[in-house]
Design brief:
15% strand, 0% helix, 93 residues
Length: 93
């Protein structure tokens, strides 16, 4: 699965150390591109849980709904591991 995400900023996001939690809780960085608190995770990735491998998802401007699903032309399916660890088919031993 993949998704198109519109990023409009042209400068880096500065993270002020005073914004980091001091209570020992972990801080999560957004990797789905849907967070409204980017670069921090806000849980928006839950929308992406039902995305299927091999599909390309386009979300609406506010990232709350899928507006288009199509085959991903760049998708490469995972290859199964050889039973012998890759040595019989010319793998490095």
């Amino acid at each position: 699965m993949a998704r198109l995400v519109r990023l409009t900023m042209t400068t880096p996001v500065r993270i002020d150390a005073s914004a980091l939690p001091k209570d020992g809780k972990p801080l999560s960085i957004c990797t789905c591109g849907l967070s409204k608190k980017f670069p921090f995770c806000d849980g928006a990735h839950k929308l992406a849980r039902s995305e299927e491998p091999g599909k390309l998802y386009t979300y609406n401007a506010d990232g709350t709904a899928v507006i288009k699903v199509e085959d991903d032309p760049h998708y490469v399916p995972p290859q199964p591991e050889p039973a012998d660890g890759g040595t019989a088919s010319g793998g490095l031993a």
